[in-house]
Amino acid sequence: MTEAHPIGLSIRGGVKVYPGTRALKGVDFDLRMGAVNVLVGENGAGKSTLMKLIAGVEEMTEGVITMNGREMHFRDKADAVAAGIGIVFQELNLFPNLSVAENIFIGHERTRAGIDIDTDTQREEARKLMERLEQPIDPDTILGTLRIGQQQIVEIAKALALEAKILILDEPTSALSAAEVEVLFRVIDELKAQGVGIVYISHRLEELIRVGDYITVLRDGTITGARSMEGVDIPWIVQAMIGSSSKEYGRTEVTEFGPEIFRAEDITLPRTGGGYTVDHVSLSIRAGEIVGLYGLMGAGRSEFLECVMAQHPHSTGKFWVEGKPLVERDVPGRIARGIALIPEDRKRDGLIQIMAIRENLTLSSLPAFTKLFHLNLKQEAERARDFIKRLTIKVASPENPVSSLSGGNQQKVVIGKALMTGPKVLLMDEPSRGIDIGAKAEVFRTMRRLAAEGLGILFVTSDLDEVLALSDRIIVMAQGRVTGEFPAGTDAAQVISATTPNAQVPKEAAE
Amino acid sequence: MTAVPAPKAAQGSSILLTFLQARTYVALILVFGYFAIMAPNFLSVANTVIVAKHAALTALLAIGMTFVIITGGIDLSVGSTVGLTGMVSGWLILYGIDPGLGWSIQFNTVEIALLVMCVGMFVGWINGILVTKLNVAPFIATLGMLYIARGVALLSSGGRTFPNLSGNPEYGSHTFPMIGAGTFLGLPILIWMLIVVGLIAAYIAKRTPLGRHIYAVGGNERGAALSGVKVDRVKIFVYMFSGFCAALVGLIIASQLKASHPATGEMFELNAIAAAVLGGTSLSGGRGKISGTIVGAFVISILVDGLVMMGVSSFWQTVIKGLVIVAAVVIDQAQSKLQARVALQQEAAAGR
Questions:
Q1: Is pLDDT larger for residue B267 or for residue A242?
Q2: From the CA of B130, how many Å to the nearest CA of chain A?
Q3: Residues A183 and A228 in one domain
Q4: What's the sign of the alpha-carbon dihedral B130, B136, B141, B144?
Q5: Cβ contacts (< 8 Å) between A421 and chain B: which residues?
Q6: What are the pLDDT digits (tens) for A135-184?
Q7: Phi and psi for B321 in degrees, rounded to 5?
Q8: Contact at CB, A370 and B209, closer than 8 angstroms
Q9: pLDDT tens-place string over residues B81-115
Q10: A236 with A272, same domain?
């Protein structure tokens, strides 16, 4: 089999360091031509980083990339494209206000004499690509009017138009219907026959086993398994993905949970273009309980939390806090009722970067220091210092801008801001994203302590280890719906299988 | 945001930082010192009062503008609002309000002042509604208002001046000229107005939740909203406050001239923006100080009046004014960078 599939590209000792984290720790990876090389691992394991190195989007900190025995240096994406490497990113990199044809040829427009864009040729080629992908999409359609699945097809067509020798597909099927996935697999088979080397990243394990020829498993930036696909089954993949994990954040003693503190009933959030981002979700949390909300990217978990925090005026459904209905329609009202949200994107949603640490900490609880309209600065500073101490936030001065802190300490400021409002229910969206191991452990300890103090905590995570170790109860969401609920100590494979129910066929295939 | 105690490692940059933070004051001293020496009569009492009066008008507008800019917006309509509110004052003094029943309601000076302030705040309220509820970009919304307010001002008199606004003792409006010409404890009343408005604005900025929210909205609107800040209310407030400041200036000018002309206040918005920027307000929002803005307004006024006294051609004055503003922004960028570096050094020194 090895002879049939020569190695087209290999990485030796690949290291990638981001400020604060080592995303890849010395990775050796071989990419075989004329075959599908699948890559699995949890979110944050380094799959996307590895692919960004190959596609020239990021530069390697250490290590070498060789193609056909020659050492390559990809300084930017154009270098990689010149070497015949195409990539379909997980996030769509498209221009919603341009047409499908314009999107496909963006950056490498077909031109006459290098100036005038040859619209006819582009349209013709785009039409052929759409035929090949068996999509009835007119090349002149404005991209923004297509539904997400079709946009993903356009993204794939964009990579195909490059006629790459190596094609990287990063979660290409996350928004595709079953029928569209079949078409994609047929195209992949064609490409394989032409000798194209394909890297395929997905969370859908069944899909990987079906389409893959070689498998590489990543875990925390290192490769924990690389072999040919023969004989690989789901338990093997799961084992390699999460290892024999130690439950370091586990609850030490069994505690009695209090009464129900928060309940959501029948929450729906319609999606533009039909369907639901949050599809009739109901759940409840008891005081002192930590509930983990697990699922893949785009499962609607963050959107659900945003619904609770009154961020989507079009959502419907009812919430109760401590048995009383939550009727407040705006954020201050919900904060006053004891809801606190720690958003996923610290930079964008959690902090005012240019304001001082103190000002960030107290932003949600200013009324507590205010008499009529006069702000008691002394009291405020005291309270801020108190929280800095309680959460062991390492700061030189509370007056420094919050942007001067490391990721973990910034996250603690966000948590401190939420806690200062005296919440009863704490919603945490990916509380451990982008912070180092030490800070992670501290954040988790804090969560445990808060739960012991009687808070109800609902946290979203994409890290299987984390959800298994930390939750008293696990709720799994997929495609906007709750697809599983498990007690603590559930088998990992069961949780994973709930994230990809095959129930997606009827809804989208109907079109 | 404020001066920070410096650890030894960062001493050098800290001194430079303190200097940069105080740059508006340094500029004030430099400009003042230069003209005191170079321009004859610059230090005379009469001239000082004139300069201060000029500066006060710019400063009042710039205080309102500073809040708007801190939230990340801009208010281009203040100059037109000055013109409009001036015309409203003139109309009220000359004609009162005529409900069309054969008689009219006349007002005394205080009532006129209050009504005019309401007009200014109403203009600001419309700006605020456009920016928040109707989602119009601040630049466009207030640009539209610039034309609308100016047009209404011109319509009110058919483009003519309302002359002889001396008021009528019968109605109690004869004290109207005092707003611009009167003094209290030796200081012109309009200087007192600047002091009062400045103190209130500085108080709001520093010691009220509203002020904190203004900075938060400008720093990160989404983040502020998720923290429970009522973003729309904050924005509507800042535009209304800006309209209020413009109304004050409209009143003062009408009172000083005892006449109101519909073209009054043209280009005032640009002077106000310049003063705010010179005072360290960042056009990208989130940063700025009332004290800085007031000093900025004085720097600009002193610069302009000083150049006039030295007989520099008005063409050169325009160029110099532009240079000073650009230089201020360049220095501002340098300061931000240095400030971030000093803070990072401190965090590093503290062992993170």
A1: B267
A2: 20
A3: yes
A4: negative
A5: 228
A6: 888 889 898 888 777 888 888 888 888 888 899 988 887 777 777 888 88
A7: -60, -45
A8: yes
A9: 999 999 999 999 998 888 888 888 888 899 999 99
A10: no
Q: Say what the pLDDT of residue A476 is.
A: 92
Tell whether A349 lies on the interface with B, counting CB pairs under 8 A: yes
Q: What is the pLDDT of residues B156-176, one digit of tens each?
A: 999 999 998 888 888 888 889
Q: In the 3-class helix/strand/coil scheme, how is B174-186 assigned residue by residue?
A: CCCCHHHHCEECC
Is the pLDDT at A80 greater than 70? The verdict is: yes
Quick one: A19 and A107 in the same domain? Answer: yes
Tally of domains in chain A: 2
Neighbours of A98 (CB within 10 A): 15
Could you give the angle at the alpha carbon of A189 between the alpha carbons of A188 and A194, nearest 5°? 95
Q: Which residues of A touch B209 (CB under 8 A)?
A: 366-367, 370, 373, 375
pLDDT tier at B282, thresholds 50, 70, 90: confident
**Same domain? A184 vs A307:** no
The closest of A455, A98, B72 to A446, measured between CA atoms, is A455
Both A137 and A284 in a single domain? no
Region of residue A87 (left: phi > 0; alpha: psi -120 to 50; beta: else): beta
A contacts of B343 (beta carbons < 8 Å): 396, 400-401, 403-404
Q: Which amino acid is at A175?
A: A
Domain span including residue A98: 7-242
| CATH number assigned to the domain comprising residue A132 | 3.40.50.300
Domains in chain B with CATH codes: 57-303 (1.10.3470)
pLDDT on residue A224: 85
Whether residue B87 contacts residue B253, with contact meaning beta carbons closer than 8 Å, is answered with: no
* Chain centre to alpha carbon of residue B112: 22
- Please answer whether residues A360 and B224 qualify as being in contact, where contact means their C-beta atoms are separated by less than 8 angstroms: no
Same domain as A100, residue A35: yes
Q: How many CA atoms lie within 13 A of B150 on its CB side?
A: 18
